């Protein structure tokens, strides 16, 4: 294993994100392609052997695009972009020592994210097939090197500085398939430092297949991002009864916790209101609708939402401003192919 020397910073950051860095291989596909590889619309899964040939098939398409990604790295790039501040975001994950790994390092540095990659010299950089059908996307992730992240990487000087200096630490739920012990360590470190540890439920298979691992980490989680489908799957997996999304958000907020403050749960519902619950306090925030013809690709909308929300939360903005920033970032992303960020964000936080 080796540590990336991509960024010269000592690791002083505002927010640390840790996850599975992947190179997105993205293209529109037809129904025959979806059927051939047994892929469901609007779903996210880990690659099996039957999926492996699809990466080359996608790469051979004239419509293919390569985008530096992985859920958490997408959020990191959006958060950095929304903040417009140097060394706002730090990122850790594992990549291979290959062309795709170099592309990811370059893209991350270009985005202003302070990266501290672990490099596995024997495993290729992870990839994610992004199969686009009628403005919906299905993700099939081949984690490869991303799956090789080890908690030992967090013992390096720069990694320790990142964990210590960050005001908030975030990992997508996808990371639980790689290193539960790292997530548990981060949660406990945040608890000791009295700072938030945030996660995303990420996908329906995370809350069901990895339910036990998630419940180990959950008592240390002070902020949960999820969408309507993931939160319903979480409720089913944990036998939570509820009458509406507001009640569900409250019940997730009040699950077992080792923290002094109530957990905050943010549930997005596409163009329906965002639900935010902290303990018994719950609020709905309407979402302005975008004309269907303006929507290019919903891939990355949830990642964008997290990045936008946290960009304001870390700066101490109120809940309404954080929600508005999350919605702005998500809507910006879905009007473009992939998580492409251009210029400066038009979002302006209201003075409180």
- Lateral arrangement of strands in the main beta sheet: 8-6-2-12-13-14-15-16-17
Q: Which residues form runs of ≥5 with pLDDT under 50?
A: 3-7
End-to-end C-alpha gap? 47 Å
Sheet/helix structural class: alpha/beta
Question: What's this, in brief?
Answer:
With 352 residues, this protein is an alpha/beta fold. 35% of the residues lie in helices and 22% in strands. Strands 8-6-2-12-13-14-15-16-17 form a nine-stranded mixed β-sheet, with helices on both faces. Strands 4-11-10-3-5 form a five-stranded mixed β-sheet. Strands 1-9-7 form a three-stranded mixed β-sheet.
Question: Could you walk me through the main structural features you see in this protein, from its secondary elements to its overall organization?
Answer:
With 352 residues, the chain is of the alpha/beta class. The protein contains twelve helices and 17 strands. 35% of the residues lie in helices and 22% in strands. It has helices at 31-36, 53-59, 71-83, 99-110, 157-165, 180-193, 204-209, 211-217, 228-237, 245-253, 301-313, 319-334; strands at residues 2-3, 15-18, 22-28, 44-46, 65-69, 89-92, 94-96, 114-115, 118-120, 127-133, 136-142, 168-172, 197-200, 223-227, 264-269, 272-278, 281-285.
Which features characterize this protein?
alpha/beta; 9-stranded mixed β-sheet; 5-stranded mixed β-sheet; 17 strands; single chain; globular; 12 helices; 352 residues; disordered N terminus
Secondary structure elements and their pairing?
Layout: E1 2-3, E2 15-18, E3 22-28, H1 31-36, E4 44-46, H2 53-59, E5 65-69, H3 71-83, E6 89-92, E7 94-96, H4 99-110, E8 114-115, E9 118-120, E10 127-133, E11 136-142, H5 157-165, E12 168-172, H6 180-193, E13 197-200, H7 204-209, H8 211-217, E14 223-227, H9 228-237, H10 245-253, E15 264-269, E16 272-278, E17 281-285, H11 301-313, H12 319-334
Parallel strand pairs: 2-6, 2-12, 3-10, 4-11, 6-8, 7-9, 12-13, 13-14, 14-15
Antiparallel strand pairs: 1-9, 3-5, 10-11, 15-16, 16-17
């Amino acid at each position: 294993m080796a540590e990336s020397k991509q960024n010269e910073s000592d690791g002083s950051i505002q927010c640390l994100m840790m996850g599975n860095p992947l190179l997105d291989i993205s293209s529109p596909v037809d129904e025959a392609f979806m059927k051939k590889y047994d892929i469901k619309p609007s779903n996210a899964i880990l690659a099996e052997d039957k999926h492996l040939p699809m990466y080359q098939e996608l790469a051979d398409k004239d419509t293919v695009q390569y985008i530096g990604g992985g859920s958490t790295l997408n959020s990191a790039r959006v958060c950095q972009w929304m903040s417009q501040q140097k060394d706002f975001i730090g990122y850790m994950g594992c990549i291979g020592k290959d062309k795709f790994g170099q592309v990811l390092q370059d893209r991350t540095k270009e985005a202003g994210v302070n990266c501290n990659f672990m490099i596995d010299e024997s495993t290729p950089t992870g990839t994610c097939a992004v199969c686009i059908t009628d403005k919906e996307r299905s993700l099939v992730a081949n984690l490869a090197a991303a799956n090789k992240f080890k908690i030992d990487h967090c013992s390096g000087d720069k990694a320790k500085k990142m964990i210590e200096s960050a005001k908030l630490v975030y990992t997508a739920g996808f990371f639980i398939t790689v290193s539960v012990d790292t997530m548990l360590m981060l949660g406990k470190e945040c608890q000791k430092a009295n700072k938030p540890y945030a996660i995303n439920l990420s996908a329906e298979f995370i809350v069901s297949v990895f339910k036990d691992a998630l419940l180990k980490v959950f008592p240390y989680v002070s902020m949960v991002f999820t969408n309507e489908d993931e939160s319903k799957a979480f409720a089913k997996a944990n036998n939570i009864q509820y009458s509406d999304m507001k009640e569900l958000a409250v019940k997730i907020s009040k699950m077992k916790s080792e923290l002094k403050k109530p957990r905050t749960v943010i549930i997005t519902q596409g163009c329906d209101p965002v639900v935010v619950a902290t303990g018994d306090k719950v609020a709905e925030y309407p979402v302005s609708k975008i004309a269907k013809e303006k929507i290019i690709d919903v891939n990355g909308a949830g990642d964008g939402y997290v990045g936008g929300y946290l960009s304001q939360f870390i700066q101490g903005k109120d809940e309404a401003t954080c929600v508005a920033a999350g919605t702005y970032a998500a809507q910006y992303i879905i009007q473009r192919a992939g998580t492409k960020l251009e210029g400066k964000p038009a979002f302006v936080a209201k003075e409180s």
